[in-house]
Specification:
Elements: E1 10-12, E2 23-32, H1 36-42, E3 43-44, E4 49-50, H2 60-65, E5 68-73, H3 92-101, E6 105-107, H4 117-130, E7 134-136, E8 138-139, H5 142-148, E9 151-155, E10 158-166, E11 179-180, H6 185-196, E12 202-208, H7 219-231, E13 235-239, E14 247-252, E15 257-263, E16 268-270, E17 280-290, E18 294-308, E19 317-320, H8 322-326, H9 338-354, H10 369-373
Parallel strand pairs: 1-9, 2-5, 2-16, 5-6, 6-7, 10-12, 12-13, 13-15
Antiparallel strand pairs: 2-17, 3-4, 8-11, 9-10, 14-15, 17-18, 18-19
Helix pairs in contact: 6-7
């Protein structure tokens, strides 16, 4: 059902792991890109189709273990001609592969949302609808935004609102009558006020922000994060810089903020960017537990390297977590050449050094349901 009685999107989740019914596991990934070499690699001559499933093969068990998996779709499904940077349009098969890998929600407000104008925005949303994705951040019209935003969903008895905004659309003309959520403090304030009327247990903001290739958050990011937290947002996930930025816990007891997590940038989930720090990203796990109060923690992050096989070897892109690389019994369908292995190990080391392990329990918070929901 697309519209609820209150004209907001309320979607119950079913079918995910029920290993611990008291803990809700939200998995977030960063920039899902579609550069031209990725498009070329996905073409399968035997079937005459584009196939992307192999890209996510080694991550599928991790993604499926989450109750809800959320990513930043930084491209359009605008149809042919398929192109990468600077105006992205990837084959619909990438969307199919993301669905097959276990993703549930895609955020679409980013600087490439208007790459192919209104027609591209509209077709992208049509493709996501056909694949049964939940999505937010871009809309076909103001009327659609009014009825579908803020995005409210519910699972394991917990009501969550997901907000999504972008710093710009790269100067591309605004895709009228379409809407791309842009970062505007006045608009965000109104959206959060509206969200609180839905009585959510949690407010989460997925922000497309920051400076490209900078490994630490900018002053603008920090100011906006404080603004969001003071308005009642409980966790912030960031994308856009294309490199991993730190994960922090923001605490200000005077302002009523108790250890709220912000992942400034998750980096590239999949792309063709090969420079150091840009050739991968992290998957961040946000856990929510509800008993007499709510407890939020960000206990785990997993680095993911984008392995690219040499040219002329068919499907070339594979996302690899450290567990697969370290498993000497894993049957990889390729041999990782020594230079690429060194780059991969360097990426894992860079992530470990940049993101020290969070001490157990340090990001648990115990607030009353009234405090955490802002009611």
């Amino acid at each position: 059902m697309r519209f609820s009685l209150f004209f907001f999107l309320l979607i119950p989740f079913t079918g995910w792991s029920q290993k611990d019914s008291s803990v809700l596991r939200l998995l977030f990934v960063g920039d899902i890109m579609g550069h031209s070499p990725q498009i070329e690699s996905a073409w399968n001559r035997d079937s005459g189709k584009y196939i992307y499933d192999s890209c996510f093969f080694f991550l599928r068990p991790i993604i499926e273990s989450a109750d809800v998996a959320i990513g930043n779709l930084e491209l359009t499904f605008a149809g042919p001609p398929y192109t990468g940077y600077p105006r992205f349009s990837s084959p619909d098969a990438l969307g199919t592969a993301l669905k097959n890998a276990g993703f549930d929600i895609l955020c679409t407000a980013n600087n490439h949302a208007a790459d192919r104008g209104y027609e591209g925005l509209d077709r992208t949303l049509n493709v996501l609808d056909s694949l049964k994705f939940i999505h937010t951040g871009t809309f076909r019209s103001q009327a659609e935004r009014d009825s579908m935003y803020p995005l409210l969903f519910q699972t394991k008895g917990i009501r969550l609102v997901l907000l999504n905004y972008s710093y710009s659309t790269n100067g591309m003309p605004f895709p009228s009558p379409g809407i791309v959520n842009l970062i505007d403090t006045g608009l965000i304030r109104k959206d959060i006020e509206r969200a609180k009327q839905l009585h959510p247990d949690l407010l989460i903001a997925f922000m497309h922000w920051g400076e490209e290739y900078e490994r630490f958050p900018s002053s603008a990011q920090k100011q906006l994060a404080w603004f969001l937290f003071k308005l009642g947002v409980h966790a912030i996930i960031g994308s856009h810089p294309h490199v991993v930025q730190p994960i922090e816990l923001i605490t200000d007891t005077l302002a009523g903020i108790y250890q709220r997590p912000v992942a400034w940038s998750l980096g590239n989930f999949i792309s063709n960017q090969r420079d150091r720090y840009r050739n991968g990203g992290i998957m961040a796990l946000l856990e929510v537990r509800k008993d007499s109060a709510f407890h939020i923690s960000l206990p785990e992050w997993i680095p993911v390297y984008v392995y690219r096989k040499p040219p002329g070897q068919g499907q070339r892109y594979f996302l690899l977590p450290p567990s697969i690389v370290a498993d000497t019994t894993a049957a990889l369908p390729f041999v990782i050449e020594s230079a690429e292995r060194e780059r991969m190990l360097q990426f894992f080391t860079d992530c470990r050094d940049h993101l020290p392990e969070i001490p157990e329990g340090c990001c648990s918070q115990k607030e009353s349901a009234e405090d955490i929901s802002g009611r």
